[in-house]
Design a protein that fits this description.
This protein has 156 residues and is mainly alpha-helical. It is 31% helix and 6% strand. It contains 4 helices and 2 strands. It has helices at residues 6-15, 37-46, 127-131, 133-155, and strands at 87-89, 95-100. It has a two-stranded antiparallel ribbon. The termini are far apart.
Length: 156
């Protein structure tokens, strides 16, 4: 999960002009916000190839509190959408206890226990993770919430 490997890593190092490599002069990385519409159009028209990389964002559904008020989510402000337990985060960083989120747009970072390398600060996305580690994390969270509800009902 540590990112690019092999030839892809070497090419990236050249594009990023890392130390001790010959720079790749045929590739340029630009940020959209650095261009006016006209300048961006001119740059694209001169390019032999354009690879748009827009990143990932969470697509959120509205969440409402007990009084019917809309709960502001961290993802609504382009923040990390979920906690380490895959629970949705409010804008103030507090976990919503019984609402879970998954996917690249959430900002979830697998733990070292899931096989993530300590120096890796990105995200990971794989069917295996969803079926095993992330799925297990969410399953245990749902089980714990169900046990709490059952305990409260039994005590009543």
């Amino acid at each position: 999960m540590g990112g690019l490997r092999g030839h892809g890593h070497d090419v990236w190092r050249r594009i990023a002009r890392r130390p001790d490599v010959v720079a790749e002069s045929r590739v340029a990385i630009h940020h959209l916000q650095d261009f006016s519409d006209a300048a961006l159009r001119a740059e694209i028209e001169q390019a032999a190839l354009v690879v748009p990389c827009f990143g990932y964002r969470s697509a959120t559904l509205p969440i409402f509190g007990p009084a019917g008020e809309r709960v502001r989510l961290a993802a609504d402000d382009n923040g990390k959408a979920v906690s380490a337990a895959c629970r949705l985060l409010r804008a103030d960083g507090v976990e919503l206890p019984n609402i879970f989120g998954v996917g690249l747009g959430t900002g979830f970072r697998p733990s070292e226990a899931m096989g993530c390398e300590p120096n890796f600060d990105g995200q990971a996305n794989s069917l295996w993770l969803y079926q095993n580690d992330i799925g297990g994390l969410i399953y245990r969270g749902i089980q714990a919430a169900t046990e709490q509800v059952s305990f409260v009902r039994a005590a009543e």
